[in-house]
Amino acid sequence: MTAERGADPHVRELLGAYVLDALSAAESGPVARHLQRCDACAAAYVEVADAVCLLALLDEEDLLE
Predict the structure, then answer these.
(1) pLDDT of residue 55
(2) What residues does the Putative zinc-finger domain cover (predicted)?
(3) Residue/partner pairs of 32-36 with CB below 8 Å, 24 or more apart
(4) What is the mean pLDDT of each run of 10 residues along the chain (65 residues)?
Protein backbone atom coordinates (compact mmCIF):
# COMPACT_ATOMS: atom_id res chain seq x y z
CA MET A 1 0.00 0.00 0.00
CA THR A 2 1.20 3.48 -0.74
CA ALA A 3 0.08 7.03 -0.22
CA GLU A 4 -0.44 7.32 -3.96
CA ARG A 5 -4.08 7.34 -4.85
CA GLY A 6 -3.60 6.99 -8.58
CA ALA A 7 -6.30 8.34 -10.85
CA ASP A 8 -9.08 7.28 -8.49
CA PRO A 9 -10.76 9.89 -6.32
CA HIS A 10 -10.66 9.28 -2.59
CA VAL A 11 -13.52 7.08 -1.41
CA ARG A 12 -14.10 8.32 2.14
CA GLU A 13 -17.68 9.35 1.42
CA LEU A 14 -18.48 5.75 0.41
CA LEU A 15 -16.85 3.98 3.35
CA GLY A 16 -19.93 3.77 5.57
CA ALA A 17 -21.95 2.11 2.84
CA TYR A 18 -18.96 -0.08 1.92
CA VAL A 19 -18.57 -1.34 5.50
CA LEU A 20 -22.29 -2.09 5.67
CA ASP A 21 -22.14 -3.90 2.30
CA ALA A 22 -24.69 -1.45 0.92
CA LEU A 23 -22.86 -0.62 -2.32
CA SER A 24 -23.55 -2.24 -5.63
CA ALA A 25 -20.88 -4.48 -7.14
CA ALA A 26 -20.08 -1.71 -9.58
CA GLU A 27 -19.38 0.64 -6.66
CA SER A 28 -17.70 -1.74 -4.20
CA GLY A 29 -15.06 -3.04 -6.62
CA PRO A 30 -13.47 0.37 -7.21
CA VAL A 31 -13.63 1.15 -3.48
CA ALA A 32 -11.84 -2.12 -2.63
CA ARG A 33 -9.15 -1.45 -5.22
CA HIS A 34 -8.68 2.11 -4.00
CA LEU A 35 -8.29 0.93 -0.40
CA GLN A 36 -5.42 -1.32 -1.49
CA ARG A 37 -3.52 1.69 -2.87
CA CYS A 38 -4.41 4.58 -0.56
CA ASP A 39 -3.15 4.60 3.02
CA ALA A 40 -5.33 7.56 4.01
CA CYS A 41 -8.56 5.93 2.87
CA ALA A 42 -7.52 2.56 4.29
CA ALA A 43 -6.99 4.20 7.69
CA ALA A 44 -10.39 5.90 7.43
CA TYR A 45 -11.92 2.51 6.53
CA VAL A 46 -10.54 0.96 9.73
CA GLU A 47 -12.04 3.80 11.77
CA VAL A 48 -15.45 3.41 10.12
CA ALA A 49 -15.38 -0.38 10.51
CA ASP A 50 -14.48 -0.01 14.21
CA ALA A 51 -17.34 2.44 14.73
CA VAL A 52 -19.82 0.06 13.11
CA CYS A 53 -18.64 -2.74 15.41
CA LEU A 54 -19.04 -0.49 18.45
CA LEU A 55 -22.55 0.50 17.40
CA ALA A 56 -23.51 -3.16 17.41
CA LEU A 57 -22.71 -3.27 21.13
CA LEU A 58 -25.33 -0.66 21.98
CA ASP A 59 -28.76 -1.71 23.15
CA GLU A 60 -32.05 0.19 23.04
CA GLU A 61 -31.50 1.79 26.45
CA ASP A 62 -28.13 3.16 25.36
CA LEU A 63 -29.77 4.80 22.36
CA LEU A 64 -32.51 6.41 24.44
CA GLU A 65 -30.07 8.14 26.82
Answers:
(1) 77
(2) 11-42
(3) 33/8, 34/5, 34/6, 34/8, 34/10, 35/11, 36/1
(4) 51 91 93 93 92 81 76
CB 36: neighbour CB atoms within 10 A? Answer: 10
Which residues, in sequence order, are CB contacts of 37 under 8 Å at separation 6+?
Answer: 1, 2, 4, 5, 6, 8
Out of 1.20.1250, 3.40.50, 1.25.40, 1.10.10, select the CATH number for domain 12-64.
1.10.10
Whole-structure pTM value: 0.69
* 3 phi/psi in degrees, rounded to 5: -85, -10
- The pLDDT, as a whole number, for residue 8 is 55
CB-side neighbour CA atoms (13 Å) of 21: 0
